[in-house]
Amino acid sequence: MFRPETAAPLNQLAQTLLHNPHPTLSAGERELIATYVSSLNHCKYCATVHGAIAKHQLDNNASIVQQVIADPESAAISDKLKALLRIAAKVQAGGKQVTEKEIADARNEGATDIEIHDTVLIAAAFCMYNRYVDGLATWQPDDPEMYDKIGKQRASQGYLTPPVKVVNVG
User: Fold this and answer.
1) Would the pLDDT of 123 be above 80?
2) Of 24, 58, 129, 146, which is least surrounded by CB within 10 A?
3) What is the distance in angstroms between the CA of the first residue and the CA of the last residue of the chain?
4) CA atoms within 13 Å, Cβ hemisphere of 151
């Protein structure tokens, strides 16, 4: 809202990475990657908003979002997504942390080169988004219903529409 000229390309990138059709990864899976990286970065706003979007993209399954945040290895997700989340975690720690082993493991679980590429890009982008949001001390509501409203809107409309109005009552 403060700088529409910078918000536009950032929202377009989020739209492309998370919402637009993808050859194989669902929007919900891509939102889970963003949520997981944001949780690793301790970015409450992004982890909560993208978790709410993922929930709505995954048939209102809040449990799967919480499972991924808590421990992706024991979450009720595919082995391929677990391998992609391991890559995302390595990117979050530092891009050079990704090794041939993580790539081979993901491929062995059926991940394609585009899925690996897009996982790395989502993880890297969310490191930037998280630092941007936290660096600006973005207001972070405590009301889960507010995040759910934003999540529902973004899940259905994407990132190129104006955000739901959320009132700061604190």
Assistant:
1) yes
2) 24
3) 20
4) 30
Distance of alpha carbon 128 from alpha carbon 3, whole angstroms: 17
φ, ψ for residue 136 (rounded to 5)? -90, 5
Of the candidates 34, 36, 69, 45, which has an alpha carbon nearest to the alpha carbon of residue 132? 45
Q: Any residues with CB less than 8 A from the CB of 48 and at least 6 apart, and which?
A: 140, 144, 147
Those residues with Cβ within 8 angstroms of residue 7's Cβ, 6 or more apart along the chain or in another chain: 1
**Number of Cβ within a 10 Å radius of residue 147:** 23
**Angle, alpha carbons 75-106-100 (nearest 5°):** 130
Residues in the chain: 170
Q: Return d(Cα 23, Cα 157) in angstroms, integer.
A: 19
pLDDT at 167 over 80: no
Give pTM, 2 decimals: 0.94
Would you say the C-alpha torsion 56, 58, 59, 62 has a positive or negative sign? negative
| Residue 166, pLDDT score | 62
